[in-house]
Every structure is written in structure tokens, then in C-alpha cells.
Amino acid sequence: MDTETDKNKKVKDYSWLECERWWIFALMMCIGGFYGGYTYSCRGGVFCNAQTANIVLFAMAVGQANWSRAIYYLIPMAAYLGGTVLSEYLPNTVKKHSHIRWDTVFVGFEMAVVLILGFIPESVPVQISQVLVNFICSMQYNTFRRAENIPMATTFCTNHVRQIGVYLVKWLRHRKEINLLKRSMYHTGMIFVFILGVIAATVLSKYFGIRAIWFAEILLTYTFFDLLHADLTKEKGMLDRVPKGH
């Protein structure tokens, strides 16, 4: 028979969906860092994880009346927007016709795209690979939004840096609120695993070139089967429960 402590522990363990767990976000953050290191090392020396740089370069091209260049930057921006629209539209459709969550379906789709990326030869214009990475990064960012109800980005670090500073100062003002320090450390950890992903991609790209992207499949595969197992076992029948932030 379960004790009261055991019951409380079970409630705590199942208070969050698997797709909201810290370790899932840490894995996705590491994968996001891997994409950044890979595209910079092997696919044209650019970062495809976010679009701020492309928007700045687009605006500069417009300011210089370089219209062809401006149109060029619209391509990755459109791919990123398309990924957001698709990842916002599909979850309800997947829920109606599937016994697994959208988050799980998306990771499976991401695995397929990563597999294809490794087969695209260097002779093919790098923009094709860049657009594919833009697309999946956008979908990943929009799909994984909150780690145990804390807003998180899994493809870039800017907000994590900000949150470290915000919660560190809050903790310094309210020392008894240890959760404030923990929250700052959570964001620090996300940056750390992102850096690990970049380092791994940089090193592996030296030895395996464009096929280095396939090493991301290791983390994606683990994530996929972890989410799938949750969908089919402890979270079976919970498809109507929406992750925080959606």
C-alpha cells in the first residue's frame, strides 16, 4: 500500500506532461545549439535558429535599394513564418486523428528532415539546407514553449541570458525565495547544454562534414521514444490536456 509520501511524490511526478519536462527541453536546447554550429560550419556560415539577423540584413538591403538582396532574405524569413503557421495549425488535426501528441509527431518529423539534410550534397545551393533548418527551428521553437510552466526557447539563447539576470537580482533582493535562484540556474543550464550542442557540431563537422548533422539523430531518437512511451502509457487518454503556454 502506498504511503502518503508516496502518493504526494506520484502527484508531483505526474503534474507535468512529458513534453513539458526539463530534460526534454534540455535535449531540444542541445539540438538547437547543434543546428547553429552545423549550419555555420557546413552550410554557408550562417545561423538559422532565429530571424533577427535576417530581418536586420533585409532592412539594410532595402535601405541600400538592393532589391534582389532584400528578396533573398525574404526566403528564410518566409520559411520561418511557414514553420510557425504549420506548427500552430497541425496540433488540433493530429489530436483528432492520432493516439499520440503533436510534440511526438513533430520530433519524428524533425528526425526525417535531419536525415534528409545529411544527404544533401555540398554542390546543392546552401540556401536549400538553410531553409530546411529555418523551418524545423521555427516549428521546434513554437512547439516547445514552457518547461514546467517556465517560458523557454529551445533554438536561441537571448531570453535565457535575460532571465538569468532578472531572477538573480530578484533572489538577491529576496534571499529566502530560493526558487528565484533555482529559476536563474535553470536558464543557465539551458545555455550550457546549448553550448555543448554547438561544440559537438563544430567538432563533428571537422571529421564528418555535412553528414555531421546525423549525430543530432541520437538525441532526437531518445526524445522521440521518451515522448512516445509517455503517450502510450502514463499519459494515455490525456491528449485533451494542453501543454502550458499553448
Notes on the structure:
- The chain is mostly helical and 246 residues long.
- The chain has one domain.
- 71% of the residues lie in helices and 2% in strands.
- A two-stranded antiparallel ribbon has the order 1-2.
- α2 packs antiparallel against α6 (126-143), α2 packs antiparallel against α9 (216-232) and α7 runs antiparallel to α8.
- The chain is globular, with a radius of gyration of 20 Å.
- It starts with a helix and ends in a 14-residue tail after the last helix.
Strand content: under 5%
Number of strands: 2
Shape: globular
Low-confidence stretches: 1-5
| Mean of pLDDT | 92
What is the structural class?
Answer: mainly alpha
Query: How many individual helices?
Result: 9
Sheet having the most strands: 2 strands, antiparallel
How many domains? The number is 1
- Percent helix: over 70%
For the largest beta sheet, what order do the strands appear in spatially? Answer: 1-2
Radius of gyration: 20 Å
Succession of helices and strands: HHHHHHEEHHH
Q: Could you give the distance between the termini? A: 37 Å
List keywords for this structure.
globular; 9 helices; single chain; 246 residues; disordered N terminus; two-stranded antiparallel ribbon; mainly alpha
Provide a concise account of the structure shown.
The chain has 246 residues and is mostly helical.
Q: Which helices and strands appear, and what pairs or packs with what?
A:
Blueprint: H1 4-13, H2 22-42, H3 52-63, H4 67-97, H5 102-119, H6 126-143, E1 146-147, E2 150-151, H7 158-173, H8 178-208, H9 216-232
Antiparallel strand pairs: 1-2
Helix pairs in contact: 2-6, 2-8, 2-9, 3-4, 4-5, 4-6, 5-6, 5-9, 7-8
